[in-house]
Amino acid sequence: MELTESYTLPVPQQRAWEALNDTAILRASIPGCDSIEPDGENAYALSMSASVGPVKARFKGRMLLTDIDAPNTYTIVFEGQGGAAGFGKGNAHVTLEADGETSTKLSYTATAQVGGKLAQIGSRLVDGAARKIAGEFFKRFSAQVTGEGDAGDAGASEAGPPDSGEEPESPDEAAGEDAGKGKKSWTAWISKF
């Protein structure tokens, strides 16, 4: 699986860099993140809950930051185990570029491998879930770095980290149907609880 995305953050480059290295901001921004703790130099232990289609699991893993060129770029190497659900590992190359004085363009290219039950459900669902998690991360991250803290919708601020990692995937959402239809499915799923 490979994902390449770009986002414009409404903060200067140095602030974006500091936030990307702040464990409290990352914990609040990563959907389903239970904990993120320093685990050696430029390394972090991570625990999170996630759902990909019918597979729901709690993952424990490690992130290592390499090729650090502050405040411009770094590479995140990650691996995680989800018990019977399987495993995930890969890397993400993150680049920050000033976009004027008050905003920053964040670009990343991530590659990942999954195994176990995650690999059995199909790349379309895995890719769709990864894109949703990344999109939710950047919505929350942007709210954190600007001090808004509400991430723009009730699901991000009220659901809490463990529940928000529950990423429902319908075939329509995984196929990349329009955002409006995806939101209706998401809302319907939440209302079941």
Topology at a glance:
Layout: E1 2-9, H1 13-20, H2 23-29, E2 33-38, E3 43-52, E4 55-69, E5 73-81, E6 87-98, E7 104-115, H3 117-120, H4 123-146, H5 154-158, H6 161-164, H7 171-174, H8 179-191
Antiparallel strand pairs: 1-7, 2-3, 3-4, 4-5, 5-6, 6-7
Helix pairs in contact: 2-4
Biased composition (Low complexity): 153-163
Region (Disordered): 148-186
InterPro entries: CO_DH_gsu, START-like_dom_sf
List keywords for this structure.
alpha+beta; 8 helices; 193 residues; seven-stranded antiparallel sheet; single chain; 7 strands; Alpha-D-Glucose-1,6-Bisphosphate, Chain A, domain 4; 37% strand
Q: How far apart are the first and last residues' alpha carbons, in Å?
A: 31 Å
- Total number of beta strands: 7
Q: Indicate the proportion of strand residues.
A: 35-45%
Order of helices and strands: EHHEEEEEEHHHHHH
pLDDT averaged over residues: 80
Low-confidence stretches: 150-193
Helix content: 25-40%
CATH H-level homologous superfamily name: START domain
Provide the spatial order of strands within the biggest beta sheet: 1-7-6-5-4-3-2
How many distinct domains? 1
Largest sheet: 7 strands, antiparallel
The computed structural class is alpha+beta
Query: Total number of helical segments?
Result: 8
CATH architecture annotation name: 2-Layer Sandwich
Radius of gyration: 16 Å
CATH topology: Alpha-D-Glucose-1,6-Bisphosphate, Chain A, domain 4
Please state the overall shape, judged from the principal axes of the Cα atoms. Answer: globular
Task: Specify the CATH class.
Answer: Alpha Beta
